[in-house]
Amino acid sequence: MIRYNPFNWILLILSSLVLLFILAPLAGLFIHTAPSDFFETAGDREVQQSIWLTLWVSFAATFISALGAVPLAWFMARRNFPLKNVVQGIIDLPVVLPHTAAGIAILGFISRDGALGRAADAMGLNLINNPAGIALAMAFVSLPFFINSARDGFAAVPEKLEKAGLNLGASRSRVFFTISIPLARQSIITGFVMMFARGMSEFGAVVIVAYHPMIAPVLIYERFSSYGLSYSRPASVLFILVALMVFIMLRIVARRKKITQITDDAEA
Amino acid sequence: MMLRLENINKRFGQFALSDINLNIREGEYYVLLGRSGSGKTLLLELIAGLTFPDSGNIWLDNEDITQRKIQKRNTGLVFQDYAIFPNMTVYGNIAYPLMARKTGRKAIFTAVKGIAAGMNIDHLLNRNTQNLSGGELQRVALARTLITSPRLLLLDEPMASVDASLRDDIKGILRKLNRDGHTIIHVTHDYREAVNLASRAGVIHNGRIIQEGLPAEVFRKPVNKFVARYAGIRNFFRVRFTRERGKWKAICPNKLVFNIEGDDHSGEGLIIIRSDDVKVFREKPGGEHDNCFMGTITDIIPCVYGMELLVDAGEKFFVDVRQEEFEQLEARELSDVWITFPARAAVVLDERI
Lengths: 268, 353
Hints:
Distance between the termini of chain A: 50 Å
Distance between the termini of chain B: 27 Å
CATH architecture of the largest domain in chain B: 3-Layer(aba) Sandwich
Largest interface: A-B, 26 and 34 residues
Oligomer: heterodimer
Radius of gyration of chain B: 24 Å
């Protein structure tokens, strides 16, 4: 029970203002969108394709990044080495870069003059204006969220448990997969969701790498710049709703089961 | 010699294990006493291979295992707080070492059932580990370690997280394991565990092993103040030694004089007297006593088997009395009593170590 002394009143007012600041524009967006426009947009094939593209590309980017990001996160949590702070700085770098600048950097990397671009070109793949290029741009700006969350998760696993695993005769990789990852699972999934959500909402870096095929944020921008505010609203509302649904769904999956059980199946 | 540590040195931040030499015989129950931060856990980790020494060698069964991988050492370490894997059931925990060795499923099942029955935890096998008691967790940890029959069992503070009422159970299990032939190194800060379990005891302080021997030896004749503290001794006296008519005396700062034994003392020193060596009487006791002083009871502290009295006889003495003795004494705070102790009870500590 909160007691209403002046401090609590001030706390309450300031907190409400912050929440209002987040909710008011969103509420305005919803209020100003007529249901008929909304349903018309929801039926628009271009919009549907763009939302679907955004979702699967961001998911794929996150999933593939996880293969490298999870081991890196463990390494950052467990090992001390010279210049560790510099490495951590490199991991955090995409957070502070202007995203358009990040987009330019990626474009240079994947264009036919760049190293990756040449390699892809040799395989007959053009990364510019291609979902693979979009995935790269999304991953570049959102990877720190995944790595840092997973790193905190690994750091919270008592090192003693990993040592016990080794002492019981398990190899390092076995300990990693049977003890470290299951116990850091919650933070890894949280990081996954954060990276996925961040990648999904990316505009700046993606728009430079690929205007087409259009991901949802680019589509919203395109509708706004070509037709104006009212025309871009229904698409925004739809994308926000889809993003929210996916976000909630992933949170539920993450919370569903904390304990992996190794059951006595020999008995069965 | 089954395990031999030769001149082990290991620096760990500000702390260092220095010149550790340790020999453990097959079937021995060795208890290493030390405060937290004395280096006892680090020593176990060195033996288990969780960390490697800066210099020195570790021999197990006449093989140099100093640089051998942790998985190949055949030592079983039971951690303080047990390090039970919370993401697995009791069965999963106990089966873990065998799964790591790729043992067949049926064989794992038989082995887990067998060892769990031996530890009296077979009814817990399908349980999660979150709601187990300290004693149950300890049994799971022991079962999990013993299932691969390690040559050497290393126990880090095995009683620290167990309720007092369950300590005797665990001690019973450990004694049985030792009787069944397991060689055990057990580190603790509690001297009572050494008294109860050890066939040999050592004391580690500031990264050095400062005394070793039979538990009775270590506690009767501690080499210095730290060992005496570990042995639960509370009567310490800083004294000056003199010799009168061929007998040694120790003079306390406020002139109380003890008769002590020994052949050679010089200058100043530190004397300990075990509180159960001091007897207390209502009236001045008859007969010859090496040391007999009158004092005042300044504090009465209840303990398990009776009372601990703090008697001020010019110097403060802690005296243990059993409940019956205490009742006969009819002692209250500030009542006057007489205390006696034999000259041999005053042990002179070596302060150079």
